[in-house]
Every structure is written in structure tokens, then in C-alpha cells.
Amino acid sequence: MAASWRLQRLPSASPGIAFAARAAAIVLALTFAGIVLALTGANPLELGYEVIDASFGSSFGLEDLGVLVIPLILTGLSVAVAQQIGAWNIGAEGQFYAGAFCAAAVGLFLPWPPAVILPLMFVAGIFGGAAWILIPTLARAYGNVNELITTLLLNFVAILLVFYVSTNAWRDRQANSATRRLSAEIPEFWGSIHWGLPIAIIVALAIAALLAFSRWGYEVRLVGSNPSAAKYAGMPVRRHLITVMLLSGAIAGLAGTLEIAGTVHRLQGGISNNYGYLGIMVAVLARSSAVGVIFSAALMAFILNSGIILQTQGLTTSAVLAITGLILFLTAIGDELAHYRLARDKA
Amino acid sequence: MDLLTGLFTTAFLAGGVLALAALGEVLAERVGVVNLGVEGLMALGALTAIATVASFPSPTVGFLAALAVGALFGMLFAFATVILRANQVLCGLALTLMGNGIASTIGRAYSGMPARAVFEGIEVPLLSHIPIFGKAFFSQNILVYLIYIILPVALSIIMFRTRHGLNLRAVGENPAAADAAGIPVGLIRFAYVTAGSALAAGAGAYLTLAFVPSWSDGVVAGRGWIAVALVIFAGYRPIPAVLSGLLFGFITAIGFVGQARGWPVAPAFLSMLPYLGTMAFIIVPVLAWQRMRRIMAAPAAIGMPYYRDVR
């Protein structure tokens, strides 16, 4: 008797297949982008060579990548940490702005020496990010209000706030829409790459270690995968939710702090290159693993940098956003398809 | 025009964008699919409309073109989430990124361009002479009547007074039971997600053909997300969805009036009102009245893909 084949859906996808699905999604999306470019009359291979040469062919290119990857590691980490407990923080963009805003307030208006100001900027930025997610956190914890929407709505408020202060009260007389240079800055160690890079990597590794090896991390992961089981086992589900979401906001606030203290050196509208939204992408590609975030952030930095390089060719960062969306879309499909396998029925 | 008439006129006009997008989202969520791509669909619709009327100056054609583009992207989303059953949140976010990205990239050629044809106001005889309210509501463009009267009433009747409506709500509440009763779960989900996406893009077209009316990068400005939030606030019902759209039209109108009259509040802070208002309206009721949670409950199977063999 002939055995018959059928599709079987497994409860969880194997990591190897999920990884392959992600790689396939990225290749497909970039191929598709290349085809669209070719249709508009450009030569995608030539542009591809130009991108690779400009990114890796000189120390300037590598410096650009190194500077771009810092906020992406942290916003990706912010989204990934919230995902560990089953929360969607789509507001990393707003928390980034809030962190930058608070850090800038310290850097602009406190009259102390840089050695005192810099640590204070970190504290202020971290608190700013956490404060910006406080209301969505409490609403989710006590009213089960969808945090995805509330965190997102606050993005618009934060962007308007930063735009307002940098064009009005805090505006520098010489500039149209930026503050004066901050009094303290994070030193650089290789070209334009500053110490924010090791800080971001250390934060990601520390959180990965906490999640993997501490009791807190174990409980958080359990609450994330099965809240009712965690509650039944006597774990403080609500308290964990609140701390993890505040931590998520704090990390995004740190990203904003590093960006203005290390890279931009002043507060201005549009300081975030959509870092908060790209952070969602970074977290999803890393399957919310804190270590994986470092690598997917590097990949996103390369994609974002390619968009910036190609601006001279008439591309924009919006085109990067569209390609990122396509990668995310294909990844979501690939993740689902990775659950299936061909099973053989014994006849 | 006195203050009240101006306030009401702007409120109806501004609320129409949110009301139409929220109606579209009600359709998708009622059959159990969360579509977080509204923001991107609106951007696509807004651009399609402005680009269409640029070469074919008829607002109706521009609006229909936007509906078609919305339906097309809606089918893409429905294919991924309903047929392949991929994660709805991820696909929705992806749709928003794609929609915003594509619209801004193509839209650079149309940046700052006013619409070459717009929906003009139509004075309804007699009714438009009623003081304040009549002037404000009955001299609006045709879409306003469609959004505030025809669509919500029709959708409400279909949803709550017909057998088909019972079926579509069953698909959102308990797809396994619906499937067992012989209702085509996949087909109904696919159709309503597509229709809802078309309405979302239509809301974008309304923005550039009736409300703003011009294209600029970021013209949607989070209205899609506000619409998604309004659906929760409205308890997933068409008529409350439209009324809450109107409520937010008022909040927007207050900001406009404030700017026009030179209130001593910076425009940036007045622009924050709709976002903060939305936050307040989805948080406060749930925290204040425990009963609201039951009344405003979401369809039970919302956000969950349906697998026939995994019951």
C-alpha cells in the first residue's frame, strides 16, 4: 500500500527553518527592490556595487555603519524586551525622542562641568524614556488597555514636543530648528564611532544574561509565554509586566540619549531616522533574542545606510522604509510557513 | 461665519476621515482580523487620489481609484493573514511601513501640490437653512453624507439585522462553530478584510480630495492609528464608530479654531490634542467602569488565525 503525504502543522517552528525563512525573506525583498529599481531605469547591480563599496570599502563607510547601529541595537532591544513578556512596544520612537529631550534639557541648562553633566544626561534620558511609557504600562497592567495603540499614539506627541522646543524656546539664534551644541559629549574612539557602541552592546548582553540566567528572567519569559500558568504558579504577573515595560521604555530613552550626546550633539526635530519603527524590524528579525538584536541591528544599519548612500541616486529613506516593510511582511509569512512539515501517513 | 458654525463645519469635515477609516476597521475586526495597516493604506489612498486627479480631474474617479488600490493591498494582507494565516500584527505593521514608504517615495513628485479637483459642498435645500447645525452639516460634500448617514446605517443593518450579518459576526466570535455550521470562514474573512482596506484607502482619498486638500509627506499623521483606537472605543459597532470619529473631528476643530483665533497656546500643543484625546478615551472608560469592558468587548476570536484541523 502506498504511503500518502500530508502537510502537518507543528506547534512551534524549528529555529533553523525560521532562520532560513528570514534569510529568504531578506533576499526576496532586496531582489524585488532591485527589480523595481531596474524598471525605473537604474542598474541595480551597479548601485549594489556602489553601496557595498561605500559601506565597506573605506573607513568612513564603516564609521557610518558603526554610528547607525547604536540606536538600532537599543530600539530593537527595547521592542524585544517588551516582547519577552508579550507586550508590543511600538512607541520606541516616542521614548527615543523623550529620552533625547530630557537628556538635552540637562545638557543645555545645567551649569556644571561635562564630567558631571554626562552621567546626569544618561539618568535623565533613561528616566525620560521610562516616563514616556508609564501611562500605557499602567493602562495595560490595570485596565488591559491595548499597549500597542497607546504607545504608538504617544510617538506623535513626543515628536511634536521636540519639534516645538527646538524651533521655539530652546532654539539657537544661529540655527533655524535646532538647539545650541550640548555642553557634554560622549568621546569618540574610532573615527566618528563613539563609546555609545560598546555601551549598547554591553546593555544588550547584560539583558540577555538576565533573561537567560536569573530567576527574574525565567519568570518574565514564563509570564510572556503563558500568563495564566505563571499566575497559577504564584508569580507577580502584573509587577513583572510593569517593570519589563518600563525597562523597555528606559532602553529606548537611552538610545535617544546616546544619539544626541554622541552623534548629533544638539536637539532638533527629526533626530530619529525612524529608529523606533526600524527597532520593531530589528526585534522581529532577531526573534526577540537580546543577543540576536545586535546582529539584526547590524543588518538593518546596512540597509538604512544603503538608503542614505543611494539618496544621491534619487532614492529616499522612505524607500528604505518600504523595503523594510516588505521584509517584515515576508518574514511574517515565512514564520508561519516554518511551522509546517511534510508528514508521511503510515498506510 | 460665526464661531459655532465654523466649529461644527470643521468637525464634520475632519471627523469624516477618522469615521471612514474606523468603519473599514470595524469590518475587518468584526470578522476576527486586526488590520494594523490602516495608516499605510490611508497614505496609499491619499496619494492615489491626488495622482489620479492630477491627470484626470474628477474627484469621483480619484476616490474610486483609491478604493481600488486599497482593495488590492487589502487582498495582499488578507492573502497573508487569512489564507496563509501569518501573524496579523506583524503583517499589519509591515503594511503600514510599506504603504507609508511607497506613498512618500512616489509622492515626492506631488509634494505640496493642491488637488486639481476636489469634492465640492452640496447645499441641501431647506435643511441647510437650519441655524448652526444645518449650515454646518447640510452644505458639505457628498462623501460626508455617505460617511455619516448611508454607510453606518447600511452596515449596521447588514451586521445586526440580517442572516449574513449573523454569519459574519459568528466568524469573528467563534470560527470553528461557524465553520461547522457551513459558513465559509476564509471567504468571509477575505472579503471583509479587503472591503475594510478599501474604505481605509478611501479615507486617505477623502483627506486629499475633500479635507486638506493637497498631498504632503506625512499628511496622514497618525489618523490611521487613531481610527484603530476609535474602533475599540466604539465597541466594534458602525454607528458608534462614526460618532466617535465626529467627536475627534471636534477635538481637531477646536485646535483649528484655536490657531485661527490666535489663542496663546502653541500650534504644536493644539496638534497634540487628538492623540492625547484618543489615549484618554480608550483608557478612562475601562478604568472608570468595570462594566464597560463587557459592553465594549472585542469579538472573541480577534487576532487569531483559524485552523480547521486544530480545534
Query: What is the name of the CATH architecture of chain A?
Result: Orthogonal Bundle
**Number of helical elements of chain A:** 14
The fourth-level CATH homologous superfamily of chain B is ABC transporter involved in vitamin B12 uptake, BtuC
- Helical residue percent of chain B? over 70%
The dominant shape of chain B is: globular
Stretches with pLDDT under 50, minimum 5 residues of chain A: none
SSE layout:
The complex is a heterodimer of chains A (347) and B (311).
Chain A (H helix, E strand, L loop, with lengths): L3 E6 L5 H25 L4 H13 L2 H26 L7 H18 L4 H19 L1 H10 L3 H21 L20 E3 L2 E2 L1 H18 L1 H11 L1 H6 L4 H28 L10 H11 L4 H20 L7 H21 L2 E6 L2
Antiparallel strand pairs in A: 1-4, 2-3
Chain B lengths: L2 H28 L7 H18 L3 H25 L4 H20 L25 H5 L4 H20 L1 H11 L1 H6 L4 H27 L11 H11 L4 H23 L6 H22 L1 H6 L16
Helix pairs in contact in B: 1-6, 1-9, 1-10, 1-11, 2-3, 2-4, 2-9, 2-10, 3-4, 3-9, 6-7, 6-11, 10-11, 10-12, 11-12
Quick rundown:
The complex is a heterodimer of chains A (347) and B (311). Chain A has 347 residues and is mainly alpha-helical.
